[in-house]
């Protein structure tokens, strides 16, 4: 800058401002570079963590596949028993059947001794639906495909609990008077009385559906047939007389949870009922003439039942009711054992109480709504599920049955064993698929520490059968 230019105050100020801007830009660029470097380091750390997690997952999967205690599932009537003293781990597989299979896997995987066993495609039906099984068609400790599981999560004979017409045949004295429409005709010619003057509404329900999704309401018995469709079956029931309402006049029903377990001898059944539960409450005050589904059909679990002042008196009656259902189902051979396999289900039953204190059984839901803490932090069923699995799959130093209440043991007749099929020796220890072998090629197994106590979500096991 020449002396003349330096004497120009305006020019000097402009140059100074320019220097300040350049300095600020340089400082900002330096800060941004530091931020970028920090983000890069963070991303690298995350990537390295994911790589290590994947490596450990692959190691665990290889250990599972190499476990010689797992045999191929066969058509033998009784699975080959396991020597529990020689086992280090138990395995579960989510075969994507649906229902609560994935949920039960996730809860079992919270135990230190449980591991994931991967799945593979089993077959594809004519509608291109894919079915899955444990890799190598192994028999694992738990899977939602009963053929490949030592513990079946579906009760044989469950149709006698799920189908409302069959349950009416089993326990008509525990239910409201029930009529059946079959292909637009009253079954056996038995129709409800047309001269009923009680003014209580009538319900027309599809026999094989639950959760209130197929319930229609009408005022008179003579209107029921008009609500039916051809080639379908319905149960028809009138509203119970004098229902016990909430203090504010709203209708409610009890969502009563049940754990039913069949033992490996295929004859012994154990029943547990949950001491807590839910009330499903209508949003509207109840009157017999309001035919809206919101008023008459209570579906949503509204609140925990423990605080309901009627519960202490009602609970034993609900417990006795479901015990009688199971007793008859076992005695009549409707509920079938699985030789060599334990089977269980968590189900719910719907009861309504009248002002005399009597309880009326309406239906069982074989796949009831269950919620996990991550989805419903305030109202969830984690304690119920965890305690149920402690009963079904007991362990040393387990948490015990929790709020599950033993409701009875029932012994029936074990089903006859089918003739044993001759299976070629080459299939008794079928190797994992070539794809699995390629997948595991080069996996580093030098680090032998197990991933103990980690659940499915922690392990990121979407690709291993839990996604």
From TrEMBL:
Taxonomic lineage: Eukaryota, Sar, Alveolata, Dinophyceae, Gonyaulacales
Organism of provenance: Alexandrium catenella (Red tide dinoflagellate)
Protein name: Tubulin--tyrosine ligase-like protein 9
Pfam entry (one): TTL
Segment forming the signal sequence: none
């Amino acid at each position: 800058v020449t002396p003349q230019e330096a004497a120009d105050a305006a020019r000097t100020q402009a140059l100074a401002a320019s220097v300040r801007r350049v300095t600020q830009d340089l400082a900002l660029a330096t800060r941004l570079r530091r931020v970028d470097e920090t983000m890069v380091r963070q991303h690298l750390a995350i990537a390295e963590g994911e790589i290590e997690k994947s490596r450990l997952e692959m190691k665990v999967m290889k250990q599972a596949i190499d476990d010689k205690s797992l045999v191929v599932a066969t058509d033998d009537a009784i699975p080959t028993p396991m020597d529990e003293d020689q086992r280090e781990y138990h395995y579960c597989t989510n075969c994507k059947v649906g229902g609560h299979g994935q949920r039960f896997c996730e809860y079992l995987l919270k135990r230190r001794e449980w591991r994931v066993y991967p799945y593979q495609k089993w077959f594809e039906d004519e509608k291109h639906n894919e079915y899955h099984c444990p890799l190598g068609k192994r028999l694992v400790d738990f899977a939602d495909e009963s053929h490949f599981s030592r513990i079946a999560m579906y009760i044989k004979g469950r149709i006698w609990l799920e189908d409302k017409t069959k349950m009416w045949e089993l326990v008509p004295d525990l239910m409201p008077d029930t009529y059946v429409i079959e292909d637009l005709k009253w079954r056996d010619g038995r129709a409800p009385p047309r001269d009923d003057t009680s003014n209580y509404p009538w319900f027309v329900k599809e026999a094989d559906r639950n959760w209130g999704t197929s319930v229609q309401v009408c005022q008179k018995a003579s209107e029921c047939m008009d609500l039916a469709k051809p080639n379908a079956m319905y149960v028809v029931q009138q509203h119970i007389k004098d229902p016990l309402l909430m203090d504010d006049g709203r209708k409610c029903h009890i969502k009563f949870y049940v754990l039913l377990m069949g033992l490996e001898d295929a004859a012994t059944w154990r029943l547990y009922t949950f001491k807590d539960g839910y009330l499903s409450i209508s949003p509207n005050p109840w009157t017999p003439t309001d035919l809206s589904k919101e008023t008459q059909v209570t579906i949503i679990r509204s609140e925990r039942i423990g605080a309901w002042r009627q519960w202490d008196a009602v609970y034993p009656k609900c417990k006795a009711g479901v015990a009688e259902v199971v007793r008859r189902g076992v005695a009549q051979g409707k509920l079938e054992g699985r030789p060599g396999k334990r089977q269980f289900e968590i189900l719910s039953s719907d009861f309504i109480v009248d002002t005399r204190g009597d309880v009326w059984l309406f239906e069982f839901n074989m796949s009831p709504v269950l919620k996990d803490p991550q989805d419903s932090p305030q109202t969830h069923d984690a304690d119920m599920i965890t305690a149920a699995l402690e009963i079904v799959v007991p362990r040393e130093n387990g948490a015990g049955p929790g709020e599950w209440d033993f409701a009875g043991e029932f012994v029936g007749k074990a089903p006859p064993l089918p003739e044993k099929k001759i299976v070629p020796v080459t299939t008794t220890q079928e190797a994992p698929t070539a794809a699995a072998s390629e997948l595991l090629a080069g996996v580093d197994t030098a680090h032998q520490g197990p991933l103990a106590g980690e659940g499915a979500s922690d392990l990121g096991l979407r690709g291993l059968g839990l996604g």
